[in-house]
Amino acid sequence: MKKNTIRTAALTISFGVLCSALTSCGSSNEAPATDGNYRPKTDSYSNYSPEAENYDVYEAPAAADECYGGYYEEYPVQPSPDEEYDSPAEGGFKDPKAEPLSTFSADVDTASYSNVRRLIEDGSFVPEDAVRAEEFINYFDYDYPDPEEGKFSQYVEIGDCPWNASHKLMMVGLQGKRLDQKEVPPSNLVFLIDSSGSMGTYDKLPLVQNAFSMLAENLTKDDRISIVTYAGSSSTLIKGASGKDKDDILEALYSITASGSTNGEGGINTAYELAEKYFIEGGNNRIILATDGDLNVGASSTEELTELIESKRDKGIYLSVLGFGTGNYKDARMEALADNGNGNYSYIDSVDEAHRVLVEEMSGTLYTIAKDVKIQVEFNPSQIASYRLIGYDNRLMAAEDFYDETKDAGEVGAGHSVTALYEVELVSDGGTYHGIDLEFADQHAQPLEYKTDKENERKELCKLSLTYKDTDTNEDIYDSQLFGMEKYSNTPSDRLKLAGAAAEFAMILKDSEYKGSSDYSYVTKTANQLADTSEKAAELAELSKTASSLFS
Question: 110-145 as b/e, with b when 16 or more CB fall inside 10 Å?
Fold first, then answer.
C-alpha cells in the first residue's frame, strides 16, 4: 500500500539515512552530512526563513513503503510497546434528573490528533488510549464570531446526530479574544530542549531545531530568549537575549547535538530559574519544553514531575509542551506536565505542524488571556432525557468545583477557541422510551420517568455557564446563557458538520461503545464536502480514507 503522507524537509534529509540501511531495496550507501544537524542552507542566520526552505509536500518513494530491512512489510503494523498513553474511562450517558450538571475544564490541546495522524501515516495501528476525542474536535477552526466585549463569545448549535438518528448533537463553542499585534505583550521565553540520546532521530532534535527557528524569526527586540538543554545534566546556551539577536539564537539552536541520559528535573529547575530572572511584568513569561517525554534521571515519573511543575506554576510562568518523535513517546507524561503547568500541549509531527503551532497560531500558543477556564452545562430534565459529553474524560470536574476559585483548570490563549459536543436524547411525548416504541404509550399522560407541572414547565434545553480568571485583572468572571430548540436546525452548519466528523473519526478509532452507525465513509464524505474551504477538512478526508484502507 502506498501511503499518502505529508512529509517534511526533516524527512527528506533523514531518508538518506534510512536508505543506507535498505541495501536490499537498492538504496544508496552514501549517508548525508550530519555536522550541521539540520542547519539552514544559508551563510547568514539572519536571512534564514523556513518558508524559503521549500518545505512543501514530501511523498516517500514507493521503496520506503514496500521494504524495510530487506523484506516487504505488511500494513498495518503494531506501534512500539514503549509508547505510553493514559487510559481514563470513556464517559457514558447521564440522566439529568440524577446528574443535571456537566462540568469540565477547558482544553485547547491538539496533541492527540497530530499524534494519531502520525501513526496512521506510518501505517500503524492506533492505540485506543491515544485517541482523545476533544483534541480531535479542537484541532479544527470553526470560525466562531469574535466577542463583542469581554474575553469570550459563546456559540451554541443543535442538529441531528449523524451516528444515532434518534439523538441530537449539541455544539458548544467559546471563542477567545484575538489580539492585534500592537496589543501583544513582550515575551520572556525559555526554550527547554531535551538533547538526550533518545532525541537523535530525524523526527526529534532536527525537527525541534526547525520548529524553534521558526518561532525565533518572529521575535521582536522587546522579547527575551533563553535556551536550556538537558541530557545527563542541564546546560544554558543563551541567557535573556533580545529577540533581535537572531544570529546568536539560531547559532545556539543548531549547535545542539543529542547524547546521554535524560535528567528532565535538572533542566526544568534551570528553565524556571531563568524565567524568573528575566521575568517581564505584564508580559508573557513562558517555558516551551520540547521532548519525547522519555526521562530517566532524577524526578522521572509522571507523579514526581507533576509535583515539581505544580510547585512552580503560581510564579506567573506558563509551561507549553511540544512532543516529538516515535518509539518511546510518553504522551501521558507530557499531557500531565502541560495541564499542571498552566500550559498547552501539542505534538509536532512535521514542519507544517510546527509552523501551525508556533507561527500561524503563535498568539494563541504563547499569550494566555484567561486562566482556570471552566464550563458547566445544566440540562433541563423536562426536555432532555439523557446526555453524553464526547471526550474530556480526564478533564471532568465536580459540579461544586465550578465556583471553587482554588480548583485549577485549563488556560486559553488569544484567538483560541474551545469546542465541546454533547450527544443528547430529547424527552419524548410518551410514545417512546430511549428510542423504543411503547405499547402503552397512550397510558402516559406525560413523559415517562418523572412528574412535572405542565403549566410551569420550562422549554429551555440548557443553561451554559462559563467562569475564568482574567489574566489582566486576576478577577474571577462568570457568564451564562439559556437556550432551547431555537438553536436547532435540520440543516447543520459547516461548523457542526466538521466537528461531528472529527468526533465520529475519533470514536471509530477508539472503538467507542457509543459510536453507533459511525463509519469511515461518512467521515470522508463529510470532510470532502468542506475541503474547498478548509485545508484541515481536506486532510481529515484523506486521513479517514487512509485509516479505512488500513483498518477496515
Answer: bbbbbbbbbbbbebbbbbebbbbbbbbbbbbbbebe
Q: Which domain holds residue 376?
A: 104-111+126-179+369-437+457-494
What is the rounded distance in angstroms from the CA atom of residue 342 to the CA atom of residue 83?
24
* pLDDT tens digits, 189-201: 999 999 999 999 9
Q: Can you give the pTM of this predicted structure? A: 0.84
User: How many whole angstroms separate alpha carbon 210 and alpha carbon 350?
Assistant: 10
CA angle 520, 417, 223 (to 5 degrees): 125
Residue that is last in its domain, among 472, 494, 516: 494
Instruction: Retrieve residue 414's grid coordinates.
Output: 488569544
222, 307: one domain: yes
Tell me the CA distances in angstroms from 345 to 61, 80, 97, 289, 379, one per residue in order.
32, 21, 36, 10, 31
Burial degree of 374 (CB within 10 A; 0-12, 13-18, 19+): buried
Any domain includes 397: yes
Residues 340 and 408 in one domain: no
Write the CB contacts of 539 (distance below 8 Å, at least 6 apart in sequence): 6, 117
CA 499 to each of CA 176, 466, 484: distance values in angstroms, whole numbers, following the listed order: 18, 21, 20
Domains in the chain: how many in total?
2
Do both 194 and 342 map to the same domain?
yes
446, part of any domain: no
Q: Based on the domain organization, do 347 and 248 belong to the same domain? A: yes
Tens digits of residue pLDDT in 214-258? 999 999 999 999 999 999 888 999 999 999 999 999 999 999 999
User: Domain check: are 165 and 259 in the same one?
Assistant: no
Q: Are residues 136 and 267 in the same domain?
A: no
Are residues 278 and 332 both part of a single domain? Answer: yes
**Whole-number Å distance between alpha carbons of 496 and 516:** 18
Are residues 411 and 342 in contact, defined by beta-carbon separation less than 8 angstroms?
A: yes
Secondary element (H or E) of residue 291: strand 284-291
Domain containing 238 — which CATH number?
3.40.50.410
Radius of gyration of the chain (CA): 25
pLDDT along the chain (552 residues), means of 10: 39 39 37 36 39 38 38 74 94 96 96 98 97 98 95 97 98 95 91 94 96 95 97 92 97 95 85 96 94 72 82 88 93 91 94 94 89 97 96 97 95 96 87 62 46 66 96 92 96 98 99 98 98 96 98 93
Q: List the CATH number of the domain containing 167.
A: 2.60.40.1230
